[in-house]
User: Fold Endonuclease III-like protein 1 from Hippocampus comes.
Amino acid sequence: MCNAVWCFRMTSPYFSQNMTAVTRGSEKLDSCTVAASLRSRRRDADVVSSMAVKVEEEEARVSQKTASLSSPDGSQDLLQLATAQPKLESDALSLSSHGRRRRQVKVEYDEGGSSTKTEHWEPPDWKKQLGHIREMRSSRDAPVDSMGAEKCYDTEALANVRRFQVLVSLMLSSQTKDQVTAAAMQKLRAHGCTAEKLLSTDDETLGKLIYPVGFWRNKVKYLKMTAAVLMKDYGGDIPDNVEELVRLPGVGPKMAHLAMDIAWDQVSGIGVDTHVHRIANRLGWLMKPTKNPEATRKALQEWLPRDLWSEINWLLVGFGQQVCLPINPLCSMCLNQHCCPSAHQSSPAKLLRVRSPHSPCPASSFQAKTESGQETVVKEERKNEEPQNVKPTTQGRKHKRKIKH
Assistant:
């Protein structure tokens, strides 16, 4: 009975049309679903294939780096291998979200490297101040110009003897005026100023020759010890570098740099003595005030052009001997009185006649008081200021006593 009904339904036109309709509808729905699924699978397949290609490339690169670990630069390759694995993982993560690659930030580097630029400090008015000092020193009549270390050696002696005499004059000039140093060098040259001659001279005779330079007893010992070292290691000559010069007894950085400049004609640094140290601080040529000449030398060399290192010593030394004196500097006669931060701070009251900035002051009419003649000039000014008709009180008392008796 069931088979008969099933056969009837299959052969009936009504049931056959409905079944075809249902079958066609279902086929249409199935075709849309299949197409959509095929597109998504194709997109996923493309993503997976691109990621697989990327992974294969990275694996090949890593394997190549691993093979090159046995080379001499294996440490650098090992570092690149260690950084390759995190990079591979980050690339896989960037491809995992809907097949979209994350946009990477492009980092650009300078070819010359990242170098921090530091500002070059220099005093605001140093060129103007230096020009004024050159104008005031144009006559070159300071003691250092005629009796400095450049003028104390024998120009007709051998080269090694001249260099030795330059070093001796620098050793004697410490804490000593140029006039005293020049007189001592003249006596030494007459006696014979060579390393061999000084080494054979007894201490008493050598002391009489260099007296009255400052600390002459200590300098006698230093001269004998230095002469012994030079005869032993340098054949009577002096070293040609600062490192070996400062190892000599009684030789400091200032003497070493000046010896390199005068004796060897090589600029190795600035020779800073008490004059240069004092004037550099007064003019404001240092970022911070310094307490000793060696600190001043290092501070000056940081900003002062190298072509001025040789000139600055004799220029400031003569300026310090004539104008910028240690005590009572002559600020009223200085061309830098309107641009010097220390002007008129240490000057006596009677010298505070401030010159107009527009008034001419030619170098020919510039008259400075040197260290040696300062006391004489001051005494003459005091005599002129004293009344001439006033008699001393002692004479009046003697006259009264005579009248009583």
